[in-house]
Amino acid sequence: MPRIPPTPEPDWSQDMTTFIEEFRGAARAGKPRTGRQSGANLLGTLARYPALAKPFLMFNRHLLQGNSLSIPHRELLILRVAHLRGSDYEWAQHAVMAAAAGHTPQDIARVADGPDAPGWGPIERMLLRATDELLADGTITDPTWTSLASEFQERQLMDIVFTVGTYALVAMALRSFEVEPEPGLIPHLPAHR
After folding, report:
1. What is the mean pLDDT of the chain?
2. How many CB atoms lie within 10 A of CB 110?
């Protein structure tokens, strides 16, 4: 049972409905909408507080639409955050998005094993390590930063930090509000292995 129940879509104000549909359009990036990917429970929870929802979603829209990272790299960061922060909802939503971006089911499951798991390429390993460091210590270590800076441009480095930080915040909110994944949305968060 959610601590803050989502407002059903028919009860949203017209202004909030329009705003959230525009946000969903950015999140879909041209892909057709399905009920499983709509994020109705999170968006319905945020719709209870439009003064917070609108500025936050405007910022989050950059991470989904204007992010300088490739979609597969962005989704890898978000899945690692979801796993480390134990957010079923975030994992369920972004496992679907990661698969649509080309990650295999094996890649998605391997996120739980972290940066040292066999099978990652050097860039994916660096991104996972950066995520782990940001969530553990609030910073990327010098060796990891140097490795990332040899592969990514300045804006991409900034997007790495802001993507991890934003989705850590989202995971916190999802877990604190006890937002439930939409029915039938799979896969679920893997156990730590």
Report:
1. 90
2. 20
Q: What is the distance of C-alpha 179 from the center of its chain?
A: 15
Question: Torsions phi, psi of 104, nearest 5?
Answer: -80, 165
Percent helix, strand, coil in the chain, to 5, is 65, 0, 35
Tokens found for residue 39: 């994020």
Using CA atoms, how far apart are residues 157 and 161, in angstroms rounded to an integer? 7
pLDDT in tens, 82-110: 999 999 999 998 998 999 999 999 999 99
Structure tokens at 191: 């156990």
HSE-CB of 97 using CA atoms within 13 angstroms: 27
Asked if residues 79 and 111 have their Cβ atoms less than 8 Å apart, the reply is yes
What global pTM score does this model have?
A: 0.91
Positive or negative, the Cα torsion across 180, 162, 66, 150?
negative
Mapped onto helix, strand or coil, the DSSP state of residue 120 is coil
